């Protein structure tokens, strides 16, 4: 029987930073579904927020709460901000290189709804990629690829491990502690910025086991995404572009966002996304991101990743404007846990990063708080885990296995249908009627002849639509349009 001290599901920033905290003497296994860089961390562009110093904690907390429509758990937000002083210093001391000026001073940027420049970045607009590489190198524990978890082994309020397909072979992995760091739910939506591996499987298992998902109505849509590509993952155009001066214009060249909020392009993400969506719907025209105010060389230096990616698509930045649409980006809600990542009622199970709902984001996440959340709560969860007394318990037998029914014949058709329903009816602007229709379709699909993995997606989708229906009033990223 394979048994580990700690099993970490996910190799994004939360999973890897958790692994970095656990001594080599512990038997730790980190697993990821595909290749390790197929995770949302790898695609994060803008940066990682940090409180700049003690004095900046209060403003950072205030910005986070205001963006979150005050639905946040204030204690969790204060922990996030205060701990950032420690985790940022730790990451830098371990050798992570953020962008600096000619004198070696760290360069901070600003993104929407931040009251000051407090976002560190690396490789210009490739912060996630650089941090991911750094943490992959730092991790001393075994990382196993191609491991798709399809069940959590839970009995009598304790988690004993998982069942997973490892290189397509059904495998049981036992562990004293399991840390879920599996990311969000991006693949449920037709238009999304997430890695293709992010498909809400673990959330779906939690629904099945009666583990609470919370704040699931608050799905976040990034305002500036290039969606005219055939691939599932759409191309993000970082908030930092607007933070550093890019404009959003309509076909007449007008900066129409001031019609929606006096902060224009720098209003919080939910407001900007909704403004673009509404304007497109109202005018039937396109909306663009305009960088023409940037000087060519400095643009390329600051945003090399975007410059290169779009050059391959025939764009010449900053001269060319690019058409944009909002797209699903981030799950503000998730698996409910406390600020140590503990899940109430289940021993030996933690959740961190985007998969978790700690209450830090409220109804709408402040830009670049996500990489920060990953490190802060990875640290807290592993501190908690390492400090507790381990009690030896006999492992029960888990006979049930879904390995031979992971997929069924018509899953692709239903999956595609689900992605459309999520985008159209549980998207940026919702109506009660649309939500009811979506709910019926989701529950109807659940009763079809479907595979395990689709069933898990549908479990998560049903949690989202049920939460959206339960919240009658608009708040943050949950917006209900009343039909007159
Ligand atoms: C971005 O670079 O715009 C994304 C940052 C984030 O999701 O916080």
Sketch the major β-sheet: 7 strands, mixed
What is the mean predicted local confidence, pLDDT? Answer: 96
Termini separation: 62 Å
Under CATH, the topology of the domain at 222-328 can be stated as Flavocytochrome C3, Chain A, domain 1
State which percent range the strand residues make up: 15-25%
**Coarse structural class:** alpha/beta
Q: Hetero groups bound? A: succinic acid
Task: Describe the fold and architecture.
The chain has 14 helices and 19 strands. Helix content is 36%, strand content 18%. The chain is of the alpha/beta class and 484 residues long. It starts with a strand and ends in a 14-residue tail after the last helix. Among the domains are: 222-328, Alpha-Beta Complex (Flavocytochrome C3, Chain A, domain 1); 404-470, Methane Monooxygenase Hydroxylase, Chain G, domain 1, CATH 1.20.58.100. Succinic acid (SIN) binds at residues 45-46, 238-240, 329-330, 367-368, 370. Succinic acid binds next to helix 7 and strand 16.
